[in-house]
Amino acid sequence: MMQADLDVVVIGAGLSGIGVARYLKVNCPGKRFAILESKPRIGGTWDLFRYPGIRSDSDMHTMGYAFKPWKNAKAISDGESIRDYVQECADENGLTPLIRFEHRVIRAEYVSRDCLWTLTCATPEGEKVITCNFLFSAAGYYKHDEGYLPDFAGYDDFRGTIIHPQFWPEGFDHAGKTIAIIGSGATAVTLTPTLAETAKHVYQIQRSPTYVRARPMKDKVGNILKTIFPGQLGYSLTRWKIIWEGRMRRRRFAGDIEGLKAEMIGEVAKALGDTVDWKTHFTPSYWPGQQRICAIPDGDMFDVLKEGRATMVTGHIDRFTETGILMQDGSHIEADVIVTATGLVLDYFGGMEMTVDSQKVDPGKPLIFKGFMYSNVPNMIYFRGYTNASWTLKVDLVAEYACRLLNHMDRNGYTQVVPVAGSGDFATINTASLFTSGYFVRVAHRLPKHGTSFPWIHKQEYFWDRKTLKRGRVDDGTLTFSTGEGIVFPPEQLAGTGGTGRDIAAE
């Protein structure tokens, strides 16, 4: 068996990757590992997105790490503070020297007879090859160098400035300008009140309404708990308070979805009063929970709408014109700047090609194993958070489990672990999805699949994951351990790709 350069490689030095690396260092102290980061800095999403007002859309007491208290008074925090938190974690735990910056993994090839991953990385000095026995992918779920742009007509006709939030120009001065923001998600509802502070006027154009909910920027009860019980205890109490509040809220989703919808829309109606047509602009056609609910910190977006500094526009865009946007109803929105907050391009493998014993791993073919591994792909764990709760809650659980898995393999002399799926497992693929966000729906055919029975299902539910990952046995019979058995994909996991829409690249 070939000797690997490293025991483990962690891909990504963002919020997930740094947290995973800390678990690895503490719980598996004998492992040799490195972190590969495609950019020259730590931070991932919180380094990439630098548009005005960038902030979390989850409470930082649960989006922060379980092991590292969030000390900032703001629970809904600005991007710079989150980036500093990630950097501080890396420095405190001696992880920064282990990061190899500007190493983008372009190919990952696994050979079962050697239990070895060979990673080909693009670097400023050319391609480099790194080998490892185990791969931890914390590369996120979207492409960092591309953003989604719908096929609107007339892009080239517009004489003003077009900006995608993923590539916000450094130092861009929007003061005194009329701005049209296209979008209805978290990015749009963040940009609207922020840009309205100094813009001449802001129009937020949405095809259809999204659920929004005002929430305090600061968690008063949480901050009191952290004052009374300094350090980890106060943070943990605050964290559990928020986790239980989320659980109760999700139970309401299931128990009285119609009542919850009426309550959420009623809150918006009360906040806006008669100053804004909330029935048109804030009454979604789908149920709460089918897309992420956008947080409105301290009601900032409602304030600028009521004050007339921003205007909601709901309808379909016909085309861009020389001076703005023409809507299908014939109305025209004049603008100096158009911001296309139109979404992400999902990318489940971090942009790398992957093979197992010379068989191509197509992202749209594998089954998802318990929400952190792919069918028939050995010695690899991916880290991806929740769509209905804070991202890091799931990452913490998977990272802890991953370390237990590695330690179990070491104790028993195993060098390979794989969630084996056969044709029978693929025969019961669940193609239905309750999550209807555009960035997910338009590429759903290219994403790993859910089965209909355990272990090929996973729930977007923290307590289910605690039972499965934190308290569940590693050797529960669902994983196959060996010292290097060959891997043969069933026909259902071979070949086939596809895609839709238009993607734009950073220039």
From TrEMBL:
InterPro entries, sorted: FAD-binding_MO, FAD/NAD-bd_sf, Flavin_mOase-like
Keywords noted in UniProt: FAD, Flavoprotein, Monooxygenase, NADP, Oxidoreductase
Cofactors demanded by this protein: FAD
Any GO MF annotation of the entry: NADP binding
Domain of life where this protein originates: Bacteria
Homology family: Belongs to the FAD-binding monooxygenase family.
Name listed for the protein in its UniProt record: NAD(P)-binding protein
